[in-house]
Amino acid sequence: QDLFGKSDPFLEFYKPGDDGKWMLVHRTEVIKYTLDPVWKPFTVPLVSLCDGDMEKLIKVVCYDYDSDGGHDFIGEFQTSVARLCEAQDASPLELECINPKKQKKKKNYKNSGIIIVKSCKITRDFSFLDYILGGCQLMFTVGIDFTASNGNPQEPSSLHYINPLGTNEYLSAIWAVGQIIQDYDSDKMFPALGFGAQLPPDWKVSHEFAINFNPRNPFCSGVEGIVQAYSACLPHIRFYGPTNFSPIINHVARFAAQATQQETASQYFILLIITDGVISDMDETRHAVVQASKLPMSIIIVGVGNADFAAMEFLDGDSRVLHSYTGEEAVRDIVQFVPFRNFRNVPKETLAKAVLAELPQQVVQYFKHQNLPPINSEPA
């Protein structure tokens, strides 16, 4: 500590390396100008801290921070994770911080302070695979953009061109992405919804209609089923607008909200939107995404065609946190955007990687936040 003064303490945690030298594993934040520091709780992998051996000695050193880097040594102690775990909220663990030089010099030296461990727990970190193998079902819904900006399906320039040779941009994307996701869907039955079209017989615009025209049972069997329903519905609808994403996001969110009542890691919902990227209800969509970020749900947007996808990139909150028009922040990033044009001539695996890049961590993040282990998991 400084003369007459307070110190700026921080702690460093070490484990013995293979060469017998101490290796730094974790450093706490510096608490400025105090003799009674309270450090924030932190998490460190057990393997990093003690190679998974709870009895292995670890060393904790307390320093007084100095801005020139010459931190002053206050004291140290050795302990083990097993000993630290004796600390519980009701009975904290007290460990004396010893400065060996001062101990030698002064007869009546007790310690250079006491470190109090309030609580130390070992929790198990589950992986995406743990949840899937534990019985969590991924429930995919496919949403297809049938708005007028996609072009007249009778024209070859349309992204929805009714091609005698049987393919177009949307079909290519449905096939490619559908084959990837169907491997993760338990029953391979997908609700397939369309938005932005006028439907027979009264030609009202719908922003969430079953593309098999069976609202009670919008499920299609596998990618083949989606492709069949898509091809069958194309000639019977009129492309229209506006391009509203929020109804279809809220549609899936209603199912995801029901799943939260189960209080187990049993279902996670994924909405795959295939779109040309033009969006009319950005405010409502941002709000819908922010609300959905609290639910077991993710959104994968696949952009087809060559439009400007700036709005889609914006929804994919990789660079900044998404806000609702109310100012509320998304609690986590749940949108992954993939421009299909970048993956036209690449192996299926490359596209799969891009489409599913963020999904595993989104699933784990949600269940961890809710404190839900996999359904069939061994205790830690």
3D structure, described in words:
The protein folds into two domains: 9-117, C2 domain (Immunoglobulin-like, Sandwich); 128-369, Rossmann fold (3-Layer(aba) Sandwich), CATH 3.40.50. It is built from eleven helices and 16 strands. It has helices spanning 46-50, 81-84, 100-105, 128-133, 169-182, 222-233, 246-259, 282-292, 310-315, 348-355, 359-369; strands at residues 9-16, 22-27, 57-64, 72-80, 93-96, 114-117, 137-145, 189-195, 197-199, 204-206, 209-210, 219-221, 238-239, 267-275, 297-303, 335-339. Helix 5 (169-182) packs across helix 10 (348-355) and helix 7 packs parallel to helix 8 (282-292). Residues 1-95 form the C2 domain. This is CPNE2 protein. One of its GO terms (cellular component) is cytoplasm. Keywords: Calcium, Cell membrane, Cytoplasm, Membrane, Metal-binding, Nucleus, Repeat.
Concise description?
The protein has helices at residues 46-50, 81-84, 100-105, 128-133, 169-182, 222-233, 246-259, 282-292, 310-315, 348-355, 359-369; strands at residues 9-16, 22-27, 57-64, 72-80, 93-96, 114-117, 137-145, 189-195, 197-199, 204-206, 209-210, 219-221, 238-239, 267-275, 297-303, 335-339. With 380 residues, the protein is an alpha/beta fold.
